[in-house]
Amino acid sequence: EAGVTQSPTHLIKTRGQQATLRCSPISGHTSVYWYQQALGLGLQFLLWYDEGEERNRGNFPPRFSGRQFPNYSSELNVNALELEDSALYLCASSSPGLAVRTDTQYFGPGTRLTVL
Amino acid sequence: RKEVEQDPGPFNVPEGATVAFNCTYSNSASQSFFWYRQDCRKEPKLLMSVYSSGNEDGRFTAQLNRASQYISLLIRDSKLSDSATYLCVVKLGGNKLVFGAGTILRVKS
Fold first, then answer.
1. What pLDDT digit, counting tens, does each position of A24-59 carry?
2. Chain B partners of A104 at a C-beta cutoff of 8 Å?
């Protein structure tokens, strides 16, 4: 079974530009999550999408946004890039279900964004 | 106070040793608990979920104490391949995972 995939692997942008990161969840998973891992820091929750809707959002400014498509893949958009946005952006997916134990999140390899 | 606190280590242990990691969390409404493993410059991978009754998976044993808001991971008979950063993770409402900063384990021959 294919895991979570992300593209691109690396992305280099300059301050003020926009970045678009993409994620495809594990087949059958409907929830997609985005996390930021800045150098030397722990993973920080960014966004949760499920069934095309934004369900939860972390403490990030509005220039971090995204969407989920009908095939459950997702995009993360970061506008007006700042130097401190340089980080590894990880996408995770989980399967639908009401039981707590079914919602384990599985991570993709990440996109490393560098802002110059 | 951080939502999830871990000793950053590093823990340097010889092969075959038993090592224990601890973690505390601050939100009593935390719903579920996990240990993830992250190798250098790689994505986190689920090691095991943690249940109140305690659970074991081969050489790995996890414990949860909800009253003390404390989670532990015990690794027996350490292997070189166990070297990694171990992340303590709690799930809050809205499916938000909160990660500890991680504990570095280095197993040496």
1. 999 989 999 999 999 878 899 999 999 899 999 999
2. 34, 46, 49
Instruction: Specify the DSSP element, H or E, that contains A55.
Output: strand A53-57
For residue B108, the tally of other CB atoms under 10 A from its CB is 11
Chain-centre distance for alpha carbon A45? 9
Give bridge partners of residue A34 from the DSSP assignment.
A47, A91
Interface contact flag, B97 A45, Cβ < 8 Å: yes
Picking from A42, A55, A101, the nearest residue to B95 by CB comes out as A55
Whether A48 and chain B come into contact, CB under 8 Å, resolves to: yes
From B1's Cα to the closest Cα of chain A, the distance in A is: 14
SS (H, E, C) chain B: CCCEEECCCCEEEECCCCEEEEEEECCCCCCEEEEEEECCCCCEEEEEEECCCCEEECCEEEEEECCCCEEEEEECCCCHHHCEEEEEEEECHHHCEEECCCEEEEEEC
| pLDDT band, residue A97 (cuts 50/70/90) | low
User: Sign of dihedral through CA atoms A24, B94, B6, B77?
Assistant: negative
